[in-house]
């Protein structure tokens, strides 16, 4: 089985969050289980690894503005072929910009011709998030079976319908309410949902949540239909347990059980001048989706019983608020993303806060539990699917008081050292490996390949 993944980022070449982590782990595990796997992503200017150029030249897609000079490079690692598509739109440093819909539309048009140029013919194409939605649509129209994964429905890749149709390479008949049209815009997330043979989300609970108005981002009607057609399911993300292993982690003093965390806790306290109160930490993108405004609002109460360590960047208003709190003797804020520091925080903290308003899957809570750090989470999405009641502390509605109450329950439990240690030991024993999810995906691909291509009913001209 030749599987081609298409994504905007892949660890360790490019990464801004969980999507990159998934594409850094899932393809390698699929290759270990016998699939032929190729991953296609943009050739960003920041990629420093030695990529071998396979092809360079003009690529054209009928009916669209010319792409100009395109490069295709290759790097093979862990049994996976990584292909990088180089376009002028990706020559600037960084991953994401305000003109991303235009940039990833160009990328989407280039993927299939680039694959053809280097002789890669997928049995199944697996697109990830809106940046790959156009590729899924073009693949389906070319007779290639496609799976589409929603990692975060909030980001959809929309732009004005009048301005956008000439850029996609898609026929005019797809720009209807049943196709890509969405409130007068072209919607690339919707392209993936409409044209894929199967759609997945990154946790079973999130697959249910997005069929409701609260989480459906305006697409809940389409997602309900996909559910009724048996085309929407949730496959829980795994975790790269070799990369996140407290027994072998080179960034910390390694440990194998909760008792071994003491040295890491002492080191984190020394690094930030914290007192002997337990440490509540978070490593997160600073955004309201992640509930970081709730965490900031709770700090007056939390600092009575906890030291609080925050690593992250994002919303300038949240960054500014945390910089002010950084002067508090029980608060430490490190702005930006720093992977070695993240390892030290996961290992040295006692508890980990994730008050997300929604969380498609989340990896931080899994990492925290690997390191015996107990999560305090809101009951949503993948947090429900991964944090057992007997391990972590969960709360319902997204509110400052809900977070404060859950942290108070955690603090009370912390004083019962036998109970806390038992929870930490249970957390460290949980299996978050990619083996189970990988087998689910391979089974899904097999079902897609054994089924006839789904007719594009309801699309005029299909």
TrEMBL record:
The keyword Transferase applies. Pathway: Glycan biosynthesis; glycogen biosynthesis. The keyword Hydrolase does not apply. One of its GO terms (molecular function) is alpha-1,4-glucan glucosyltransferase (ADP-glucose donor) activity. One of its GO terms (biological process) is glycogen biosynthetic process. It catalyses: [(1->4)-alpha-D-glucosyl](n) + ADP-alpha-D-glucose = [(1->4)-alpha-D-glucosyl](n+1) + ADP + H(+). SUPFAM superfamilies: UDP-Glycosyltransferase/glycogen phosphorylase (SSF53756). Coiled coil: none annotated. Residues 2-223 form the Starch synthase catalytic domain. Its EC number is 2.4.1.21. Residues 269-424 form the Glycosyl transferase family domain. Keywords: Glycogen biosynthesis, Glycosyltransferase, Transferase. ADP-alpha-D-glucose binds at residue 15. Transmembrane segments: none annotated. Synthesizes alpha-1,4-glucan chains using ADP-glucose. Belongs to the glycosyltransferase 1 family. Bacterial/plant glycogen synthase subfamily. This is Glycogen synthase. It comes from Deinococcus arenae. The gene is glgA.
């Amino acid at each position: 089985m030749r599987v081609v993944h298409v994504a905007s980022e892949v660890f360790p070449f490019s990464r801004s969050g969980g999507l990159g982590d998934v594409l850094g782990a899932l393809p390698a595990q699929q290759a270990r289980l016998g699939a032929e796997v190729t991953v296609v992503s943009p050739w960003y200017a920041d990629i420093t690894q030695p990529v071998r150029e396979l092809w360079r030249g003009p690529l054209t897609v009928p009916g669209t503005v010319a792409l100009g000079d395109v490069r295709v490079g290759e790097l093979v690692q862990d049994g996976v072929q990584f292909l990088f598509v180089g376009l002028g739109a990706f020559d600037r440093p960084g991953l994401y910009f305000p003109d991303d819909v235009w940039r990833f539309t160009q990328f989407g048009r280039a993927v299939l011709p680039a694959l053809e140029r280097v002789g890669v013919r997928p049995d199944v194409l697996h697109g990830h998030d809106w940046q790959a939605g156009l590729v899924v649509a073009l693949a389906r129209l070319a007779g290639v079976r496609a799976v589409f994964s929603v990692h975060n429905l909030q980001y959809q890749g929309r732009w004005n319908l009048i301005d956008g149709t000439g850029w996609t390479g898609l026929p005019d008949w797809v720009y209807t309410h049943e196709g890509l049209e969405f409130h007068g815009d072209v919607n690339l997330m919707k392209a993936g949902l409409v044209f894929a043979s199967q759609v997945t989300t990154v946790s079973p609970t999130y697959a249910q949540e997005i069929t409701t108005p609260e989480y459906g981002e305006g697409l809940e009607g389409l997602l309900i239909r996909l559910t009724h057609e048996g085309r929407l399911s949730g496959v829980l993300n795994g975790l790269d347990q070799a990369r996140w292993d407290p027994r072998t982690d080179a960034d910390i003093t390694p440990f194998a059980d909760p008792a071994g965390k003491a040295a890491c806790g002492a080191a984190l306290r020394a690094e930030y001048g914290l007192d002997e109160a337990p440490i509540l930490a978070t490593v997160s993108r600073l955004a309201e989706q992640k509930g970081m405004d709730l965490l900031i609002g709770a700090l007056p109460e939390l600092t009575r019983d906890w030291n609080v360590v925050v690593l992250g960047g994002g919303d300038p208003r949240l960054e500014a608020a945390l910089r002010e709190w950084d002067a508090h003797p029980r608060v430490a804020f490190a702005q930006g993303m720093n992977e070695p520091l993240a390892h030290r925080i996961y290992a040295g903290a006692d508890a980990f806060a994730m008050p997300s308003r929604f969380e498609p899957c989340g990896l931080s809570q899994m990492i925290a539990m690997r390191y015996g750090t107990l999560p305090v989470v809101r009951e949503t999405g993948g947090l429900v699917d991964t944090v057992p009641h007997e391990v972590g502390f969960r709360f319902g509605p997204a509110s400052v008081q809900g977070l404060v109450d859950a942290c108070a329950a955690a603090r009370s439990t912390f004083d019962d050292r036998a109970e806390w240690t038992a929870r930490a030991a249970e957390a460290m024993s949980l299996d978050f490996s990619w083996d189970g999810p990988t087998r689910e995906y391979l089974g899904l691909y097999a079902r897609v390949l054994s089924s006839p291509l789904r007719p594009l009913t309801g699309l005029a001209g299909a």
